[in-house]
Amino acid sequence: MATREEIRRLEQEKLMEWSRKYQQVQEREAKRSLLVKVLYTEDYKTLSIKLLLAAVAWLFIGGAFALFLRGQAGLSSEGVPVVLDPSYYFQAMTNHVMDMVFGAAFTAVFSLAFYMIPALNGSRLVKWPKVANFGFWLNNFALFMMNLGGIQNQYLFTFLNPLQASVTWYIGYGTMVVAEWLEMASVIGTSFEGRVQGKLVPTPIGFIVMDMIMMALANIPVFIADMWSLFSPIGGLNIYLFGIPNAEVWKGLFWFADHPLVYFAPYALTGAIVAITPLYARRPMYSVRFTRWLIPVLFVLGSSVYVHHIVDDPWPLILRDIFAQTSTALVAVPFAALWLLFFITLGDPRKLKWDPGFAFIFAAAVWNIIGGIQAEPTNPTPSLDPTIHNTGWIFGHFHIMLAIYSVGGLLGALYVVGPDLFGKNWYSTKLGWLHFWGWQAGMGLFAIASSEGGFFGLIRREVAWAGFYEVYYQLLLIGGWLAGFATIIFAYNLILTLLYGEKVPKTDIPMWAVQTVAMERYAMRREGYKEEEMPVALPADGMIRLEENSGISNGTPVGAKALDNNSLDVSKGSPSKGLTDPGKS
């Protein structure tokens, strides 16, 4: 068994090896103009910022479609074209969902992954950057193809034959899946680029990599369904493969396999929350071992929540019982365990130092619990599913889970790590708080109004309805615009930060990552993990100084001497410096 000193020496050698490679990356980056960096970059921070800005752009595009919808529905219950002609109503709905889910949320997840993994493992290296950059641009091209489908795109959210999506929609969707596979391959490769044989990766990386694997597998039947539909008469090529109508294949493969995709943002967000929570609690997660066990449990259950939208179709009863009801109920258990760990770790919230970033994350936890409670009584059963899934109850649930939980949580993570990612403090704390309260009020009102309206029968996928329901659509209009204005405030703060934000001291390894890994190593030692299997210890000051004879100077890694003496000081290098300091009580 190697001694602690030998282990530390091997870790330092690995950090130096990665550092030399990263210096070469920086030298190549210095020769590239800004335009070239936009098209292609090897630097993990530049790549992450590029993805982030694209996610924000799609947030605005998808949000514009949403406001068209909310304006039309909130001003007329009779389908009179006040804002949109009824023929374009479902097109806007389709494009809104595609842009928000695949354009904004999914791109933000890739941005998070390409930034957090190299920071936490200490490598600062992206594996296969050409694949990552090509996947990014291909994904944006595919999304534009889907948006350009015209009024035929109303097919996606009506599923009424013979309505159909355009050929460009099917081609764009298939292209988007390929692009996602490319980005996921690069993310997974990046995790191995910074992995040392025999050592565990930091827990947040485990969640993110698991997420990528689950998404890659779930995309296989979705891609098959998309290609099948493209070749069929509805797809425009008029080919019946094996004589099977494409409508049933689409429902069987797309909806059967689609539901695991909704966990793509939550699982990556879980990794970010596990990394960030100790910074505010000033102690490790309550149980590292239990937290790590959540990774395979969530993978198995998240991958088995199928037949979620077609329970009224003639599928074998055993499939509906196991996948539609049992798995959907069981997946709530690990989430409940996650939030229990989260709240135990934080302790008394009155003793925490709050800032907009942590407020977004805390609110995301609360809303996920609310959304889960809302969904469980309506597990897809033959008696409820056909009715419930066509009411506002479901899109109320969906907006809780995607907008307030997933997107809200990702925004919180950005507020926390933003100063290191941008190299600048956030321009305004007040604007951050305005963004938080505007988003919570707007999307909260949206979720409550749609859920209550759905409880009383507010119909989904219609352009006209009884006047009784119009008050709910008016509340949805108000909630949507509140969230829209909050997003404008966020974008304004982001632009001012990039242009005029106060520069922060630069370290080789982000200090939030140093502190997170340090506390995880301390907890692992306390829980009986072996020294040689712990994640690589990062330098206490975040600096990797190359010296020919002595390796990394001034670098007793955090997790060694500091944690052995129980003297970890998380007040230095606060990840949200400029908003508040989670290390100061």
Automatic annotation (TrEMBL):
Q: Which Pfam families match?
A: COX1
Q: GO CC terms for this protein?
A: membrane
| Keyword Transmembrane carried by entry | yes
Give the domain of life: Archaea
For this UniProt record, the keywords arranged alphabetically read as follows:
Membrane, Transmembrane, Transmembrane helix
- GO BP: aerobic respiration; electron transport coupled proton transport; respiratory electron transport chain
Q: Matching SUPFAM superfamilies, A to Z?
A: Cytochrome c oxidase subunit I-like
Name the InterPro entries on file: Cyt_c_oxase-like_su1_dom, Cyt_c_oxase-like_su1_sf, Cyt_C_Oxase_1
Q: Give the transmembrane region(s).
A: 51-69, 100-119, 131-150, 170-192, 261-281, 293-311, 323-346, 358-375, 395-417, 437-459, 471-501
Protein name listed in UniProt: Cytochrome-c oxidase
Q: Which PROSITE patterns does the UniProt record give? A: COX1
CDD domains linked: Heme_Cu_Oxidase_I (cd00919)
Name all Cytochrome oxidase subunit I profile domain ranges. 29-503
Q: Name the Gene Ontology molecular function terms of this record.
A: cytochrome-c oxidase activity; heme binding
Residue ranges of the region described as Disordered: 548-585
